[in-house]
Amino acid sequence: MNAPLRPESWLQVSPAGLYCVPAGIHIDPHRAVDRAILTHGHADHARPGHRAVLATAPTLAILQARHGEVAAGGYQALAYGERLRINDVSLWLSPAGHVLGSAQVVLEYRGQRIVVSGDFKRRPDPTTPLFEPVTCDVFVTEATFGLPVFRHPPAEQEIARLLHSLRLFPESCHIVGAYSLGKAQRLIALLRQAGWAQPIFLHGAMERLCQLYQSFGVELGWLRPANPDAGPLPGEIVIAPPSAVADRWSRRFAEPVTAVASGWMRVRARARQARAELPLVISDHADWDELLQTLDDVQAPEVWVTHGNEEALIHAAGLKGIRARALALIGRGEEDETAAPA
Amino acid sequence: MISFSQLLDALSYMPGRNGKLRLIADYCAHTPDPARGYALAALTGDLSFDAAKPAIIRALVEERVDPLLFRWSYDYVGDLAETASLIWPAKPGANRPPALDEVVERLQQATRREVPALLAGWLDALDATGRWALLKLMTGALRVGVSARLAKTALALWSGKDLDAIEEVWPALAPPYATLFAWLEAKAPAPSAEGLPTFRPLMLATPLDEATLPGLDPGAYQAEWKWDGIRVQLVAGPKGQRLFSRSGDEVGAAFPEILQAAQSFEVVLDGELLVARDGVVAPFNDLQQRLNRKQPTAKLLAANPAHLRLYDILAEGGEDLRALPLVERRRRLEQWFQAAAPDRMDLSPVIAFTGWAELQQLRAEARAAAIEGLMLKRLDSAYLAGRPKGPWFKWKRDALTIDAVMMYAQRGHGKRSSFYSDYTFGCWTDEGELVPVGKAYSGFTDEELKRLDKWVRDHTTERFGPVRAVEPGLVLEVAFDAVQRSTRHKSGLALRFPRIARIRWDKPAAEADRVTTLAALLEG
To answer: What letters, b where the CB count within 10 A reaches 16 and e where it falls short, cover A296-320?
Structure first.
């Protein structure tokens, strides 16, 4: 009889990040490697310069749109559910619900299954398919919002607050700070669902990724550049990266109301720190309840936590009788919500 | 409760005055009586619930949430009511959310024993913003940047009525202000406030720029001590007595002996509220214990008796004296005081002086704890609302400073929860031991805070929860107003109002001050 297979013997934390030993492939490595699987297109997961990358088609398109020629040496697209065999490892991708193209990586080796979730959320999102839980032996999870104070309200409710403010302050341009990949497109889609039919104005940093979403069939309606020709835009919605909202760039707009869309807006000190006048609690990450629900759904007896508030999630997993530990991956949190100032 | 919570939430983030006015006006226009009246009362500070104590909140949460998760969360969020509102577990199938008037009326009638169950039921039914608003309402700490004055301005904006007219009828009103709203909506005549005790906005002083002193005529000014208490206005008349803070908030309930002492008078007085025993003013700390006590116990009343030191008289027997020059008002004040001989009051003495140099000398020698500095008031000044530039100056005494060594650093709360921003510092004993003498968490810029935070992280020797002990390697120049004896620190000394004056990145720790240097500054 062989000794039981230890999962950490075949999925390890190497200097470049998570590494599947028998397949010889990294997952979301934070520096250039030979072969990488990318869970999604955010810069802290999808870095340029790998020799060969494997990801969903939208993730590959995002990588190329952002980095052009140097994005990677070679590309291989894998559809959700499509299986691939590398050495003795069988792998496939499952929707993560985080942003367009986001995927969990399912790795199977000698009867053991590890799921690397990347970043994920459980709420429906008109711009990306819903997260699909996959039962497994080890679940590798994020914990960006790993404290029980983070419970995101329904996004529709937050959009209604934005629309109410537009009615109450019709002379003001409403500038919404949102990350340019994922959050911006989801906001636009949510506004369309809520009946906002007017053009939505975009900061230059948003335009290319919105076009990319549209090319993958995501309906975003009429979008216009928020350039100086557009004027002061009273009563209109402008979407811009969070860094531009409080910058001189926003001064040209009519009596601007600054909104910020992020899960961090749940905590008042964070919202004030971001100088938000209208904090919108809209997140593309699982909140506390979703993190715990996911642990129940995947039924893994062992959980590894990559980044975020690991301590509390590990404690809560322990209360459920799940063995949990921190992987303390470096290089996470340089784009997307994890990049909010500490 | 839902729309009230949305109002509070929006107000708390709205930086501009006009935006706040619009939010309140919009709420009043779309909310029925009596809910809008109670909301107004909450904003103007006219609601209080004696049976509802903050400790109840913690106890309720601790029954429902793992203690470690609660502690981490509180540490992160930095505010108990907010943490409780966010961490409260959702209860599927809870009752409908309560209306604001239902919450207010039931809380007012509830006994202390009934409050927890009542509160738990409401928390189950509300969302996070609703829970936050409920807890803020209950504990009376709204802190959404709305003064009573601003709320009344919003009513004026919404109704088209004159703000002064609203102020005038205010003393005749009580929550939920049905008569007020009926008048504002032109459904009833204005309520009458004839003869009721009303607040008159205070006259405030501007800081003195010493460089301008030679240009001022010493003969044109009255000098007084600036007492270290709370500036108040006492209004007494046939229809009652009220004690107002400088912002116009009523504080009389916490100081019943002052209201009692004013019972037979018809007068409006400006003065400093102090704690005094046998005519000797006690440290500010003793007054602090009386503040925010809605109903002080008999023991506290006896131990820390309140006293009013009078500066000015604004009205007497229905006659408005504010237009008179100060010298004339002072005469009227002294006359009134002699005739009335009120308990628990005395006159703030006028300081005789002939020139600025003499006054400067007096100021430098004044080290009594109750004295913050000097006031200079033009003898011909009328009593004007607000802070007019010129007629009145405050001339605070100079701060003292020492060079101390950082010993411990603690993480701040809220916005500063990721920064080590509170510093315990010490001085050397003659034996060469470093002993703590105080704690400061202000006086530096955001940039300096970042650098201090990094220094703390790089020089940590031990960690105890949110506190880190650091190497004795960074000298802080600490400014403070006075040194007092204290049993709290090993040094036996404590500083009043300590703040960081400078960070001495350059200075070796061994050259910081000794405890004996500090002890020499002790007040008699």
So the answer is: ebbebebbbbbbbbbbbbbebbeee
Distances (CA, A) of A245 to A173, A205, A232: 12, 12, 14
Geometric angle at alpha carbon A152, from A151 and A154, rounded to 5°: 135
pLDDT at A341 over 50: no
Q: How are beta strands B392-396 and B371-378 bridged, if at all?
A: antiparallel
ipTM score assigned to the predicted complex: 0.93
- At B302-314, the pLDDT tens digits run 999 999 999 999 9
Q: Which of A153, A161, A319 sits opposite B66 (nearest CB)?
A: A319
The question of whether B226 is a catalytic residue gets the answer yes
* Interchain CB distance below 8 Å, B66 and A266: no
pTM: 0.70
Alpha-helical regions (H) of A225-307: 242-245, 268-273, 288-298
Distance between CA atoms of residues B457 and B472, nearest Å: 13
How does pLDDT run across B345-358, given as a tens digit for each residue? 999 999 999 999 99
Measure the CA–CA gap between A21 and A27, rounded to whole angstroms. 11
Query: Six-digit token pair at B222?
Result: 């009255």
Contact across the interface for A279 and B23, Cβ inside 8 Å: no
User: Which one is catalytic: B226, B294, B394, B450?
Assistant: B226
A225: β partners: A202
Q: Tens digits of per-residue pLDDT, A227-275?
A: 888 899 999 999 999 888 766 677 688 888 999 999 999 999 888 878 7
CA distance A140 to A94: 14
Question: Tens digits of per-residue pLDDT, A56-93?
Answer: 999 999 999 999 888 999 999 999 999 999 999 999 99
* Contact (CB, 8 A) for B443 and B470: no
Contact indicator for A97, A129 with CB cutoff of 8 Å: yes
DSSP lists the bridge partners of residue A324 as A303
Number of CB pairs, chain A paired with chain B, less than 8 A apart? 72
- With beta carbons less than 8 A apart as the criterion, state whether A181 and A41 touch: yes
pLDDT surpasses 70 at A334: no
Q: Is A43 exposed, middle or buried (0-12, 13-18, 19+ CB in 10 A)?
A: middle
Q: CA B62 to CA B73: how far, in whole Å?
A: 12
d(CA A118, CA A28): 8
Evaluate if residue A295 carries a pLDDT over 90.
yes
CA distance B233 to B250: 9
B267 strand-pairing partners = B236, B316
Nearest CA in chain B to A266: B86
What is the end-to-end Cα distance of chain A in Å, rounded? 50
